[in-house]
Structures are given as C-alpha cells and as structure tokens.
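Re: the 79-residue chain
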Amino acid sequence: MIRHIPNKYSLATLQEEIDKNFKNKYDILYLPLDKSNNCNLGFAFINFTDSLHIIHFFDEFRGKRWQKFNSDKVGLCLC
C-alpha cells in the first residue's frame, strides 16, 4: 500500500513515476478514485512480482516528495 499520494495524481501519472525504476516489477497497481470529484483517495495498492522489489520500492518512496503538482505530501509506503 502506498499512502499520501497527492489527489491530482491519476493512475497514469502514478504509474509513470513508479515505472522509472520499477517497470515490469509489479502486476497490479490500483488507485481508487472518488467519483464525485474525480480525484484519487490518496492511497494505492501495488502487488510486486517478487518480494525483493518491495524493499527497493520502500527505500525509494518512503519519505520522498512527489514530483508532480508541487505537493507538500511525502510518500509513505506500508508494505
């Protein structure tokens, strides 16, 4: 689970940022949306194909500021 995702991120935007270093290392990425305002809910689920990728993902995204939309939110990964 990934938390503190800026609400303006779409699934494509999130996937683009994750794929920079983790392309083809996961098989499911789910970003729930609030249909009333068409924004995400601030969290996502990701399923890695190998448990070793979780450690690298955690190290990269924990405490990191999101690159798009000038958000003050800091990524938090709960694996």
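The radius of gyration is 12 Å.
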